[in-house]
Amino acid sequence: MAFEARTHVNGNMLRQFAGQNISIMLCVDDEAGTNLIGTSTDEQKITVQLSDSVGASKGDWIEVIGKAIGSTSVKAKEAILFGGENIDFDKEGYNMMVLFMNNCKEIYRSG
Question: Rounded mean pLDDT of 53-61?
Answer without folding.
Answer: 91
